Amino acid sequence: MNVNRVTTRTVPEELDGIRTPLRGRDVELAFIEERLDALGRGEGGIVRVEGPAGIGRSRILAEAAAAARRRGTRVFEGAADPDEQFVPLGPLLEGVLSGKEPLSGTQRLRDLATTPGQRFWLLQELGDRLREAARNGPLLIVLDDLQWCDDLTLLTFHTLAAGLSSHPILWLVAVRAGSVPSGVRTTLDRIRQAGARELVLGALEDRAVARITEDVLGAPPDTGVLRLAHRAEGVPQLLVELLGSLREEVVTIENGTARLSAGPPAPRELPSVVRRLDQLSDEARELVQTAAAVGGTVTVGLLAELLGRSSAALITAVRESLDADLLAESGDRLAFRHDLIREAVEAGLPLPLRQALRRQAAGLPPGTAPADAAEADRLRTEAAELAATAPGPAAERSLKALELVGADATERPRIIAETIPLLWQTGRAAEARELGASALAADGLGPEDEALVRLALARLTVPFDFSEAVRQARAGAVLPGISVTTRGRLLAMLAVGLSMSGEHAAAEQVAAEAWETAAAAGDRSAEATLTTVRSAVSFHRMDLTEAFRQAERSAALADALGVSTSLWVPEALWHALLSNTTGRTAEALAVAEEGIRITGEQGRTAATRMWLMTRSRILLEAGRLGDARADCEAASAKDDPGPGNLADVTLRYVMLRVALHAGDRRTAQAYAAEARRMRSDDAPVVRHFGSWMLALTADFEGRPDRAMAELDEVMTSPAEDRPAYAGLIDPADAPVLVRLALRAGALERAAQAVAQAERRATLNPELTFLAATAAHARGLLDNDLAPLVRAVRLYEGCPRVLAWASALEDAGRKLAATRKAEAVPYFEKALALYTRAGAERDVARLRRRLRAVGVRRRPSPARRDGQWPELTPAETRVVRLVARGLTNRQAAEQLSLSPHTVSSHLRRAFTKLDVPSRAELTRLVRLRDCGE
Known about the structure:
By secondary structure, this protein is mainly alpha-helical.
């Protein structure tokens, strides 16, 4: 973080590095002087300066700091940056630890800031240092751009401000007006309740505009120049830049008056706008430039058409443009924050390109088409044609068709049913749900129309609420007089919901009825979905050969039909999970990565999120804990209503397992709380996951009896609905359960887990991974070295790193009792695998085992870059690309990751390397590459 940004960066009234006098802020400066007077008398407090971009917030802060220094007040200045939010507490900490007069104990504070688990002590120490400094005289702490501060900075700010309120400390913070992140809004609400004073900066009055114009041009302006100056609408930064761009070429001084040498000047680029454009990703920059060329307000749908992308694919670019204060929301459209901004962006585009974009925009269907049935039918047809490859434009057309028909039109419910899945696929689930609820609440809804709406809602709710999907499908299937096709699809959706919910017996029964109905209707879409259910039923029966055969057939059918017609999106998800669960990790990972790539290209936000969560499970069980956590964080960053059952059984489960392997007690406890919520869910499978998560947490805490108690419901549930591997999530958990049961003295449960594992391996002899888990579980139960060694040998051919490491550790532990020297290679190999995985808690345990058998050396970490021992391989790849100047999005494209995943890796790298910015990271890369 640059802690002196407020005094070194270009502020709104600065031109060519020379600061012009501050005009039109007499009232605001008088207020600041009053607060500094009060500070001199020992009265602290908080002052919040708020205003839009370019209004002069930073200039007010700089003037306040200068005034405080003239009084002899000690000043600390910090500022947040949107591109450097990777170091928690960076803006505030750098503000008080840098500059001419940093706080005492700088090194101690820096050490606490970079040591995991020391945040409480850091807050205490920082508070103590500020109290100590305040005893020697008043303090002014300036924090600019609060809207970009990280959560820890926000927490520390309002905590310290409240705790030190009796001391002579004045906190002067600036925040952008308008929409800000929820954490910032919470902080603002808290400091307002604590009595913070507010200083809201508005547009400059005409007199101030005239004075600034004279300052910049060197002479009083005439009416023509003033008319031009008023186009800035009182925004100082735009005013100064506009005048500065005209000073040399357009304005002349005649008889002591500034005049325009010709007519009104053509639009031209402005430095602040160019800077903001340069900071955008390529996609966001193209979006802003296209909007500027079109002119006026513009819909996201029109921009998507012009850019050749789906509306959903523009979500990140639109958000980035809004956050940069270039665009603003205007109803259901986008508009530029200021017309001068639009003109400045447009001025940077070649004239032929501007003209071509305008012609293309004019040729698109107008935004206010006549509301007739023919136009609505045309739009519905186009939406159906686009749905398979471009759901974003398809959703826009479907919504437009909905606008064109009246509230009482007979076709309206059908259009709603068509629109719901398109909205869901493009990440607009809340809007889709609201649309469906409004349709069901309408009077006079016929059975067929209601059935179609409920079918759409069932598809929508499957990832979020398994039981709600079941309720919607069941309610639709029993409606009288509906078509055979609709009833068959509802039954297929009901079977899917029951299967995902964990109600296997009911799912099999409904699927049999659905097959007959789908066959009568000749519905291949329902057949694809039901084939997935058949695969799940076979998996539950432990017939994995048949499960794979049905899964491959289901994926092929869905692919041939197009994902938009499939009732479960997409069937390939199940194929990936099935492959992973049976040890075919490389195959599962390839399918998941292809799914992420395709859905990302097509703008299928919902499906991309599902694929990210699925891949997180695969990466966890492949021992790539850092990558698994990054995928979870990326999936969490995507907008999504409600907790989500699919997130429960993927994302939250994965985050708990990663925390347990890392020894991260706080994170584990947070996800254990989620598990307790899951235990009361309507869906049995979610309850089972919750139980297993709580059992693992109890074992982590050293409470094996409690761990067994958490599994009571799962182990005693009806056999037909009990998970296929005795309450476990994955076959590799069989040895984990045996170990838990043995610790608790529950020999019967340990034997039950072994019997299940051996039965599964016997029924599927071609799957080596299952044989390895069975041998591992048997070796633990019998305390027998031979099956443990056999398990180690079988795991060698499987990409299940953590399972293999666990077998090595157990075999080594058995050997260590009598043959210590022979145990060492097993322990060292296990240590290398755990190190490669990033399983820090397991690494620490293996080092203790090695010391117990007399090994004092510290084995070298496996598969770590020698120059970057602190980082995982994935983090190292990201760091090197960023150091070459690539943006997060460019790095994501090169690595075939999502930008959120890259951001997660980069944030962790910043923390591990203790660097505050990309510039510092680049410098560190160059030093290490030179061997320094």
